[in-house]
Write a structure and sequence with these properties.
The protein is α+β, with helices and mostly antiparallel strands. It has helices at 6-19, 29-35, 40-52, 75-79, 100-109, 160-173, 238-242, 248-269, 275-281; strands spanning 27-28, 56-59, 63-68, 91-97, 117-123, 141-148, 180-183, 187-190, 193-205, 208-219, 287-293, 296-305, 311-315, 318-322, 326-332. The protein binds biotin. Biotin is lined by residues 99-101, 123, 126-129, 132, 134, 143-145, 187, 197-199, 215-217.
Length: 336
């Protein structure tokens, strides 16, 4: 399909905004044409374009009727009803990319504004932490990367993963109340299985941050058999736990709202503002855990997550603060 011209895209956006205000009610094509200074045929072409994007519209000779939007992360859908002040006001929405983090980093290098987001329906080389892959099939997950340009020092950037985890946990709780856990440092779990991951990447020079890209992957509507064999026992989706299909656009908008709020809280108060939620959501506190960092493994009881986001382990009656690592729960130390 050849790329639609920009004027037609703009007309399609205008027509969509107008007709979706009155779903199921026919709107006269001539009225739309008059309103937007276009010909009737141009409005019909705009309607065809919307239909090709997956919008359900009834297009008769003289009228257009809006039925529903596609289950798709289109920029117009993400924008429609988005209540943020700055996050997601600039959107690059793709169908298929290698990795939204790579595109976001490239756009950041080229000067895209603070708060830009990049989304994709599918990633062919979705990246996870520690060089792992992130399973990114089409049409069922959320793959989003945010470009931030904080003015603070680079050593404050890693904590943004925890800030993001809190925003994600609050968003997912909307669908699965009381069931969300954060596995330190920043994996989101439902029913003990991973449902979301965060990849924070920093570009800095000396004490100056050029940009931070925070990539978030959420398993939203995957069915039980859709994860590859090797991660099936480790991964789950919101749909499987909530037992109903989730509207991805709605979830993304909710997340962007929480993220903006939590980011601003971090600017004002550091992580101390998040600590109560981080503790409440934690899947580890009270358990004996092993934390692997490179070749080192430390085993102890997870007793706290401090205001710097460190996991506090009690080992032989001494307290150790850990800033990173892969955690495995060894056994429950909670009293029976
Ligand atoms: C992890 O838990 O290992 C982090 C997973 C992060 C995946 C997201 S999906 C959107 C963004 N683009 C990527 O290539 N990775 C992140």
């Amino acid at each position: 399909m050849p790329a639609p011209d920009i004027l037609l895209e703009k007309l399609a956006d205008d027509v969509l905004l107008r007709i979706r205000k009155r779903p199921e009610q026919p709107v006269s094509i001539a009225t739309l044409a008059h309103r937007f200074g276009a010909s009737d045929d141009a409005v019909r072409a705009a309607a065809d374009l919307l239909i090709s994007y997956g919008y359900r519209l009834k297009r008769k000779r003289d009228t257009l009727t809006y039925h529903s939007a596609p289950d798709c992360l289109l920029a117009a859908e993400i924008t429609y009803g988005l209540k943020t002040k700055w996050l997601g006001h600039h959107i690059a929405a793709y169908n298929m990319v290698k990795s939204t983090n790579d595109i976001a980093a490239q756009m950041a290098e080229e000067g895209t504004p603070h708060g830009t987001i990049v989304t994709a329906e599918q990633q062919t080389k979705g990246r996870g932490r520690l060089g792992r892959d992130w399973f990114s099939p089409p049409g069922t997950g959320i793959y989003v990367s945010m470009v931030l340009r904080p003015k603070f020092r680079p050593d404050r950037a890693p904590a943004l993963s925890i800030v993001t985890a809190v925003a994600l946990a609050d968003s997912v709780s909307n669908y699965c109340p009381g069931q969300v856990k954060i596995k330190w440092p920043n994996d989101l779990l439902l029913s003990g299985k991973k449902t979301s991951g965060i990849l924070t990447e920093l570009s800095a020079e000396g004490r100056h941050i050029n940009h931070v890209v925070i990539g978030v992957g959420i398993n939203v509507n995957q069915g039980s058999g859709s994860f590859p064999e090797e991660i099936r026992h480790l991964a789950t989706s919101l749909r499987r736990v909530a037992r109903h299909k989730i509207n991805r656009v709605e979830l993304l908008q909710l997340f962007l709202g929480h993220m903006e709020k939590e980011y601003e809280r971090y600017l004002k108060k550091g992580l101390s503002g998040h600590a109560p939620k981080v503790r409440r959501y934690s899947s580890l506190l009270g358990y004996t855990v092993s934390v692997r960092s490179g070749k080192n493994v430390i085993t102890g009881q997870a007793v706290d997550i401090d205001d710097h986001g460190h996991l506090i382990l009690e080992v032989d009656q001494r307290r150790l603060a850990l800033s990173a690592g892969e955690v495995t729960v060894v056994k429950s130390a909670r009293p029976a």
